[in-house]
Amino acid sequence: MKRMVFIVSAVFIALSLGSCFTGWTGDEGSITISIGGGDGRAAAWPPTNKNGALPLLEHKITIYGPAGQEYSRTIKAGETSTTFSSVAAGTWKVNVEATCMEIPFGSGNESVDVKAGKSTPVSVPMKPSDTTFFLVANDEEWGEAVSAINKAGKYCIILTEDINVFGSADYTFGEDIKSAVNPIKNITVTSVGKNKTLTLQEGGSLLRIGANQTVIVQDVKLAGMGEENPNTASLVTVTGGTFTMKGSASVTGNFFFMSGDNKETIASGGGVYIADGGKFTMNDYASVYENSVKVQDSSGNNNGSCANGGGVYVSGNNSTFTMNGNASVSGNFALGSGNVTFTYGGGVHIAGGSTFTMNGNASVSGNFAKDGSSNNFGGGVYIGDGSAFNMYGGTIENNEAPFSGGGVYIETGEFTMHGGEIYNNTTGSGGGVQVNGPTATFTMKGGTVVGENEYRGLAPNIAINATNNGAALHVKNGTATYGKYNTSFRPVETPGAYSINKTITGAGVSQ
């Protein structure tokens, strides 16, 4: 079996100041820096290539000279030297930072006294970084890497090929660790080239992250088995840990299905499930797309079976979900089969006092909540159990819940809109936003919720059941504040509902 793990060890980079230059002035010289060529480990630098990954090893060399002079350049693996011409005589500090996949691999520094018209060679001893690297080309090597992550520390798994791995009900990277010195396992999963795929086979969660574990997935696709091979778990499960997606990372293709005839059955989080104080952050162009969560109950009894969060489900007082940059949750489904199932949040479902924040150009789009009757709520986002949704930017558009809350449905919790746009969503009541609970609150401080007509190029939200069901906003029970308007509506006191069909903004109703 070929060895899969390479671990950073103490290395030595020889930096030679040579005489390969011409054209000195009286107080100048040139510095030629060569990597390798020394004794022992330095002669073997960079380390032997493994599975094609080390061509991505880079060395940033920076020299600092008299009077604040500074020069810097990067040498990629395979290159052996670089020359800084016409540098001033005097004392120079040489600093070398080696990185692999943008993660620290080693570093070192040394000083040298450069004489005018002369050269003085210098060697810089390198200290290893505190990250252990694993290069993984198949499922066997993946298993070896995961097993080796058995104590607190920093780790990086680099996929060199697409890999199929078994799901599990156990933590992927071992049990929670509580160490007073270094209490956290910090794991990065990335790939040589973008979009290597880690695909689930059989069943369970592809990644299960526990407390005191921080996992970053960068430029890797996490893929489920598709609708033809239903799963019984979320593709990524986070209970108390931290999960971050970066670059082009994605979670897709998981079909979470549970049958609940004659008993209450709850399925939550088709793509990602966050609970117990877990933290989930999506950056850059990260995406959660084309996942589904579905429950089936054909008993005819009201057992309370429900499907929650086709894309993302978040629950717990300290649990958070944050979308930054151009992150997206799209094309996900919360589905019910039978007469008494309920579906909440085609894209995102937040519950249990959790918090959801949208920033930048993030988007929740093309998601769908549907069941066999009229019990579907929040095509884009569902807010329940005293949770909070803060929208500072981005868009919620083209989502659908046939019954209520095409864009956002608030049952018990708060939705504060500081910016962004909600448009082109479809439902029976509350095309943009539905407020329906005694503690449900919608506060609009900025942004736009489009009404029944196109507004500044944005397609209208649609409430199809009746003209008074609120293309932009429907308050059946709860409080809505937008601009100078403040509406509290209690159906016990006043039968009916409060509807706005015109576009609303932070300044109030637009014509």
Query: What is the end-to-end distance?
Result: 71 Å
The low-confidence parts are 1-24, 37-44
Count of separate structural domains: 2
Structural class: mainly beta
Shape: elongated
Question: What's the total count of β strands?
Answer: 53
Helical coverage, percent range: under 10%
Tell me what portion of residues adopts beta-strand conformation: over 45%
Largest sheet: 22 strands, mixed
Number of helices: 1
Gyration radius (Cα, Å) is 28 Å
Give average pLDDT, whole number: 85
Itemize the secondary structure elements and their pairings:
Blueprint: E1 5-7, E2 11-15, E3 28-34, E4 57-64, E5 70-76, E6 81-88, E7 90-100, E8 103-114, E9 122-128, E10 131-136, H1 139-148, E11 153-159, E12 163-166, E13 185-191, E14 196-201, E15 207-210, E16 213-218, E17 220-223, E18 236-239, E19 242-246, E20 250-252, E21 255-259, E22 266-268, E23 272-275, E24 279-282, E25 287-289, E26 292-296, E27 306-308, E28 312-315, E29 320-323, E30 328-330, E31 333-337, E32 342-344, E33 348-351, E34 355-358, E35 363-365, E36 368-370, E37 376-377, E38 381-383, E39 387-391, E40 395-397, E41 400-404, E42 408-410, E43 413-417, E44 421-423, E45 426-429, E46 433-444, E47 448-449, E48 462-463, E49 473-482, E50 485-489, E51 498-500, E52 504-505, E53 508-509
